[in-house]
Amino acid sequence: MSAPAVIARYLAAAPAGDFVALADCFTVDGTVTDEGHTYRGRPEIIGWRESLASQFTYRPPSPAASRSTTASTGSRPTWLAIFPAALPI
After folding, report:
1. What distance lies between CA 30 and its chain's CA centroid?
2. What is the spatial distance between Cα 76 and Cα 66, in angstroms, rounded to a whole number?
C-alpha cells in the first residue's frame, strides 16, 4: 500500500519547512489537534507548524522505517498510523 498523494505532499513539505505547501494539504477549513489544542484553517495550521519548527528539529523516518511494521502499527505502514483518516471510505 502506498501513501495517497496528499500524504506524500505533506511528508515532503514538513521537512522542507514549506508550511504553506503543508497547509495546502488540508481543506480551507481543515483542523489539526495537537497536544490538546485545535488549529482551524490554513493560517492557524501554518502558525502551528512554524511554532513546532522553532521548538523541534524535524527528522523524517528512514525509507526502511516507513515500510516497516511495529507492534503499535500492526501491518499498516507507518504513514497510515500517523494519518489514519487517509484510509479510503
Report:
1. 13
2. 10
Q: Where are the alpha helices (DSSP H) in 1-87?
A: 5-16, 19-23, 41-55, 63-67, 78-82
Contacts for 12 with CB less than 8 Å, ≥ 6 apart: 21
Lookup result for grid cell 471510505: 89
pTM above 0.70, yes or no: no
Report d(CA 32, CA 41) in Å as an integer.
9
Domains and CATH numbers, the chain: 1-60 (3.10.450.50)
Whole-angstrom Cα distance, residue 82 to residue 32?
12
Per-range mean pLDDT, top range of 32-41, 48-57, 73-82? 32-41
Q: How far apart are the first and last CA of the chain?
A: 15
